Amino acid sequence: MLRIALFVILLVAAAVYALRKGGGPERAMAMILLAMAASDQILHLFIPARFLQVDTGHLLIDVLAAAATLILALKAYRFWPLIAGSLQLLPLVAHSTRAIDIALDPIAYLTMQVAASWLLPPLLALGTWRHQRRIRQTGSEPSWVGSSTAAAPTAIA
Predict the structure, then answer these.
(1) Exposed/middle/buried for 89, CB within 10 Å: 0-12, 13-18, 19+?
(2) Distant-in-sequence, close-in-space partners of 9: CB < 8 Å, separation ≥ 6
């Protein structure tokens, strides 16, 4: 339980920071992460977590989150969403592995599903911090591919 509480604290802190100080991509990623967490809680109200077979509820959440993050990565004028998109694909590998190998240990399946999630809040916080730093240096920066700004960014990340 302490591990879950710690993750929720990290997630909420990173999301609040991104929503208050981030640009469009940072705010979008914060909403994706918060939607994932809320969906997970709603799922567990109706269906207990099971790791002996493919967890279709979490599979659906993970597919939607990966799709949203990959779209964000393609549209954002940042580098960090590409890393987030890659991290969001890892749980899909876990579901595929479970589907292929029914003998996979349930703890291994659980770990494969959630381990990459721990990297997303710090990545979001770092992306938000970098956005704030670039704003201080240049005065403005584009959030989305194809958008324009008075001052071009000196670094994308």
Answers:
(1) middle
(2) none
Count structural domains, the chain. Answer: 1
Kindly state the average pLDDT of the residues 109-135.
94
Instruction: Decide if 124 contacts 84 (C-beta within 8 A).
Output: yes
Decide if 150 is inside a domain. Answer: no
User: CA 113 to CA 121: how far, in whole Å?
Assistant: 16
Task: With respect to residue 126, please indicate whether it lies within any of the assigned structural domains.
Answer: yes
Residue of 125, 97, 123, 118 whose CA lies nearest to 109: 97
pTM: 0.87
Asked if residue 143 is part of any domain, the answer here is no
Alpha carbon 41 to chain centroid, angstroms: 16
Tokens of 87: 């991290």
Distances 2 to 6, 9, 39, 43, 61 between C-alpha atoms, Å: 6, 10, 20, 21, 23
pLDDT tens, position by position, 46-84: 888 777 778 889 999 999 999 999 999 999 999 999 999
- Tokens 């997970």 identify what position? 40
Q: Does residue 84 form part of some domain?
A: yes
pLDDT of residue 151 exceeding 60? no
